């Protein structure tokens, strides 16, 4: 079963996170018109914050990097967001540490700026404990015995886990991470999927938050997206494809959950010029690996199918 979060107002699960973060900083000190909010984002949280910040009559500086998809950058600019572009790699396979340094510098130079801080603010996991977790339990039903969740800040998974562990302690919880990510341990290295993995450990994922981490290579995640699209006509985002691959890895190892739920953070619309584009696969040198992985899926007889509810 896929739980698809692309129908949230700005197209991803981060609409929930943005709501939780803004309610929290407003509670600490009311957000008055003209307040400047700053956040480091790979894109989706930026889009979600942009919408709410506009409703609040506040301003928003989004600290982004070259991995932020072009359509996301264009949407942010069109929403009146100021983009602060970081181009210094952080030495851990990404830009996150450089983005966080830039946010700290901006806030130091401008003490009135407010930082929502998705990487440390407990309001991030809390909103998922209050909303996403209960929805998963309700929609998955009593039979639900495994969930697969992509991680970057780890907030989504930590919140879902806090709820599920309290109502259904036997559900297997799989953290889906990227190869080259430090979120669930491991060694920093090249990552290509926007929103999946990070250059540092999660401050939210404490012991017992998940049973196992599935570390998915960019090529394997893209191959799952492409195969799913070929079979269903539905374009998933790259972290969603990686989540599907995490589930398939369990099947390969002989684990057959009775009822599994894969949480899909966004859809493929922002990634048509990258994950779904053969030229881009060549540019990032994963074309052969992606096509090989799709051939192996097909050789194993795998076909995705949309079932009637
Ligand atoms: C597409 C996508 N997938 C997964 C995630 C991971 O969510 P979290 O930061 O809650 O771990 C994000 C977060 O930005 C995302 O944008």
Number of helices: 10
**If you compute it from the alpha carbons, what radius of gyration comes out, rounded to the nearest whole angstrom?**
19 Å
CATH topology of the largest domain: Rossmann fold
* Strand line-up of the largest beta sheet: 1-9-6-7-8
Name the ligand types.
pyridoxal-5'-phosphate
The oligomeric status of these chains comes to: single chain
Intertermini distance? 10 Å
DSSP strand content:
5-15%
Task: Note poorly predicted spans.
Answer: none
What kind of sheet is the major sheet?
5 strands, parallel
* CATH C-level class of the largest domain: Alpha Beta
Which word captures the global form?
globular
CATH architecture of the largest domain: 3-Layer(aba) Sandwich
Q: How many domain modules? A: 2
- Number of E strands: 9
What is the helical fraction, as a range of percent?
A: 40-55%
Written account of the structure:
The chain has 309 residues and is α/β, with parallel strands linked by helices. The chain folds into two domains: 14-115, Rossmann fold (3-Layer(aba) Sandwich), CATH 3.40.50; 122-299, Rossmann fold (3-Layer(aba) Sandwich), CATH 3.40.50.1100. It is built from ten helices and nine strands. It has helices at 14-28, 44-55, 70-78, 96-109, 123-140, 155-167, 218-232, 238-252, 278-283, 287-299; strands at residues 2-4, 36-40, 59-65, 82-86, 114-115, 146-150, 172-178, 212-216, 260-264. The chain has a five-stranded parallel β-sheet, with helices on both faces. It has a four-stranded parallel β-sheet with strand order 4-3-2-5, sandwiched between helices. Strand 6 (146-150), helix 6 and strand 7 (172-178) form a beta-alpha-beta unit. Helix 1 crosses helix 5 (123-140) and helix 5 packs across helix 6 (155-167). It is globular and about 55 Å long. The model has no long low-confidence stretch (mean pLDDT 96). Pyridoxal-5'-phosphate binds at residues 12, 14, 42, 44-45, 150-156, 195-196, 237, 239, 265-266.
